[in-house]
Structure formats: structure tokens, C-alpha cells
Amino acid sequence: MKKTIIFIAFFLFGWTLVSGVRIEKALQYNQHTLKDHYKYKKTVRQIQWNKISQKLDSLLILEEIATEFGALNNYKNKNGLAPLVNSFKHNSYKHVVDKNGTKRDQGIPFYRTGNLSAPECYGKDGALVWILRDSADYLVIVPAEFDGVWLVPSKYVDRLPVRRFTKTIFVDRTNQNIVTLEQTDTAWLVRSMNPATTGVRRPPYRQETPTGIFVVRSKTTSMMFTKDGNSELAGYAPWASRFSGGGYIHGVPVNYPNKKVSEFSWSLGTVPRSHMCVRSATSHSKFIYDWASTDRALIIIYD
């Protein structure tokens, strides 16, 4: 009971934990590897080990308490366009969003206990949640990075087959890098440290990569994409692992009529410029594709 109270307080009130996670470097992928601190133009960028360690601490607490995990699911609105929230607006992309800026499209309705007339806000597709219990046609859940205890219609939550996540992928939007870690009995082992490119806020087509704790939901060797503003195929991204909506970690995009796969791009590790996805070197994206199992690995995106 005491652990449950501490855990809920951590999420509801944003308590900060002193990190005790042990991290060691034991690379399994060693191409394009970054140093802990590295130069970019006139600045020095870094791998934010302190934030990574704190987030791993939080994950361990969550795993200690949670009896069951789920992943929010409304990819391409397959479970139905979420009902309108009580208070909504249109963003610069002309999308309906809640008070937090989360989109209705591919969103998951979050209800307060005792008020099922309209959702208060939306959850993000692919986000990790702790399933507290069933309640008629709803699940009582605590999102891994979202305040409060909520009711969500059961159809919007996929129950996951694991209670421990030993493989995590950290994407740093500020420093434009990506780090993979694997848990062992004694430490979290760093498996790769690489440059990345995240999404940029540039209406009407390019969007920021969303922050949060997401589950690897699906994979494809070739993620097809269309030209901005129409349905004509523009190319594909190799070795793609999906985490939220149409957001993937993938290799260097192949733009038609060129059909040759590129290993690396000069833009990796510079500034955000993708449509929403996280770009990495093609061989690194294949490493992630092979290494991180669907519904058993996490993608944690932070600033």
C-alpha cells in the first residue's frame, strides 16, 4: 500500500527521484557513435545521462507497482474518432486539439470518474499506461507520463504481454541524438549512441516528434510516404519501427525517382526537419528494427 501511494504521488504531483540507476557502455552497434559531449557548430551537445537515468528510475518504480501494462491504440482511428472534449480548439495545422495540444485525430478519449458525458482530454496513440482495473466497458488507467487516474474505453487499450521492459530507446529532441539501453541483472547497458533528426513544427505538413513514453507497436522494412498535399508516393523510409500514430524511427529516406538506399545523411544530428518521425542512420535503424521487439520495448522521447 505504501509503495502504491508513493507511486501515485510521483505521477500526480511530479515528485523528483534521486537516480540510483547504474549505466555502463557495452555497444552492440558502433557506427557513427557519439561521445558523451560533442561539438555542434558553436555549441556543445551532450547525451543527457542524468535525465536518462532519472527516467529509468521512474520506469523501475512503475514496473515494481504495476500489475498490468497497456498501450493506447487508435492508429488511423481504427477504434473510432475520439469524441470531442469539453474544451477544444484548432491548432495551426487546423487540427482539433485538447487543452494540452494533443490531437483528436488518432487520439484516445480520457474521462474523469463520474463524468462520462464527454472526455476531458486525449491520450497519444502508442503511449504506455498502467492498467489499474476493469470497470464495465472502461479501463481505469494511469498513463506513464500524464497526470491523473483516468477512465478509457477498453477498445482503445491494447493489453501488453510483459511487465518488464528490458530494452529502451531514448530520443533527445534538444540534442538530436538517440541512445539504446538494455537492462541486465547488474546494470543498464548502452548498446548505441547516435545522431538523429526529429520532427519540426512547420505547418501545414511537418510536425514535431511527440514527447512521452511509447511502446514499439509495429515494424516495416519499407515505410511508404506520399508527397505533401496529395496521395502520390514520394518514396520510402527503410527499417521503420512505429511508436505513435504515423511516427516511426527509420533510416535515411529514399526519395523517388532515386531508389538507392543511403546509409547516412549530413542532416542527422543537426536540427529538427522531419515530418514527425525520428531519422537515424539506415544501419542503426536496422539495428533497432532487429533488436527491439514489438510490444516489448519502449521509445522514450524527451527534451
Topology:
Blueprint (H helix, E strand, L loop, with lengths): L1 H12 L9 E3 L11 E4 L2 E4 L2 H17 L3 E4 L16 E2 L5 E2 L10 E3 L10 E3 L4 E8 L2 E6 L6 E4 L3 E3 L7 E6 L4 E7 L4 E8 L16 E4 L2 E9 L6 E12 L2 E4 L3 E2 L22 E2 L2 H10 L5 E6 L1
Parallel strand pairs: 1-15, 13-22, 19-21
Antiparallel strand pairs: 2-3, 4-9, 4-12, 5-6, 7-8, 9-10, 10-11, 13-14, 14-15, 16-22, 17-18, 18-19, 18-20
Structure write-up:
- This protein has 303 residues and is mainly beta.
- It folds into two domains: 20-34 and 164-302, Beta Barrel (L,D-transpeptidase catalytic domain-like); 69-159, SH3 type barrels (Roll).
- It contains three helices and 22 strands.
- It has helices at residues 2-13, 49-65, 282-291, and strands at residues 23-25, 37-40, 43-46, 69-72, 89-90, 96-97, 108-110, 121-123, 128-135, 138-143, 150-153, 157-159, 167-172, 177-183, 188-195, 212-215, 218-226, 233-244, 247-250, 254-255, 278-279, 297-302.
- The strands form six sheets. The protein has a six-stranded mixed β-sheet, covered by helices on one side.
- It is globular.
- The two termini are 33 Å apart.
